[in-house]
Specification:
mainly alpha
């Protein structure tokens, strides 16, 4: 999951845009394509795929908690679920703004 999320590395595209801006390519089609690629990569990697994977993670953790013979602690289950809710809530605020 981390490798896929790293496709939208915040240090990759902005440096490319900065270089194109300083090189005088700010009014080119390549500059616009780079901006669209940044938005699509962010949405695809962080919002759409990351949200669905966090739901799958919570389902797996809750399911593992109730498998007979496992020593998965109750506190870890609650902690993972709270972390997932907090992160998904943060993602929701990105759509609405502050």
């Amino acid at each position: 999951m981390h490798i896929y999320l790293a496709l939208h590395n915040p240090y990759t595209h902005p440096y490319t845009r900065w270089f194109m801006y300083k090189a005088g390519w700010a009014n080119t089609q390549l500059y616009v394509i780079n901006g669209l690629a940044m938005v699509l990569a962010f949405f695809g990697c962080r919002i759409a795929w990351g949200y669905t994977e966090s739901v799958v993670l919570v389902m797996d953790i809750v399911r593992e908690r109730y498998v007979p013979g496992t020593a998965f602690p109750k506190g870890a289950t609650i902690g993972y679920c709270i972390a997932a809710v907090v992160m998904n809530r943060w993602v929701g605020t990105q759509f609405r703004g502050w």
